[in-house]
């Protein structure tokens, strides 16, 4: 069923690309709205390659987009109520929801000022994760450098997915030519203008609202503050997800609270590409490959997690953290991902 869902999502993406000048697809995200808006080339079924002389980073090389971390205000109240149920039976935690957030959102659905043409709608889904997660011998990347996005990261306790990866591979043809896509160079949804609202979220053509980063208004509704750890959801492998604050000493609940820092850094120098098969120019931060994991540079590991005690797990557990810096949300899973989070 997951393969069927992913295929249908792909087809919807291509359909919307042929009609609108703004479109956004998360599970199989096809084109950034910023690229459409700034290039001025109307989308269509003819394959073209995005080029730009904006944000020129070195001689002869131009980035297709500029770093943009700004977010518009969330002014819209949805017609539906949030419906979510979390239950545990045996070793399975089940989260069933209508995918409607319990907070205000940006303007979606088309028209003046709309962040993308896709209107939010109720979509009932069930997500199952293990209550006994175990770290695997190897981490599982959310993005395959051969075939693109392969897993969603997790689901929050309000029933809304958190899915950080886009599907924006070099050379950024529209529609995406999957036969020539270079997934090693994939645009980062959080670092450019992808039509995200104040909650770092937007909408798939199917109507599903989903987060790419820190869900600001959801955190406010939980009363998340800088003086406590706040559990906000579960990753696809069953490990818990926390807001950015954690104990100063990971193994001591009495050690105080601090904002945890990722261990990723922007690479220095220039990308190795030739501008044909891969992007060239300085590392600016618009691609996920512009960053590198530096062990010990921050508080967290390569999946933006660490082992430690938490209010819900006083004996200690591996947990993920949503940070203010790249990668914002983990780009890999330390355990074995559940099938409900597969995009294949």
Task: Draw up the topology in text.
Layout: H1 2-17, H2 33-39, E1 48-49, E2 56-58, E3 61-62, E4 84-89, E5 92-97, E6 125-130, E7 135-141, E8 143-144, E9 148-149, E10 154-156, E11 161-162, E12 169-170, E13 173-174, E14 182-186, E15 201-203, E16 209-211, H3 216-222, E17 231-235, E18 240-242, E19 245-247, E20 257-259, E21 264-266, E22 291-293, E23 305-308, E24 317-321, E25 332-335
Parallel strand pairs: 18-24
Antiparallel strand pairs: 1-13, 2-3, 4-5, 5-6, 7-25, 8-9, 10-11, 10-17, 12-14, 15-16, 17-18, 19-20, 21-22, 23-24
Quick rundown:
With 344 residues, the protein is mainly β. The protein has helices spanning 2-17, 33-39, 216-222; strands spanning 48-49, 56-58, 61-62, 84-89, 92-97, 125-130, 135-141, 143-144, 148-149, 154-156, 161-162, 169-170, 173-174, 182-186, 201-203, 209-211, 231-235, 240-242, 245-247, 257-259, 264-266, 291-293, 305-308, 317-321, 332-335. β15 (201-203) and β16 (209-211) form a beta hairpin.
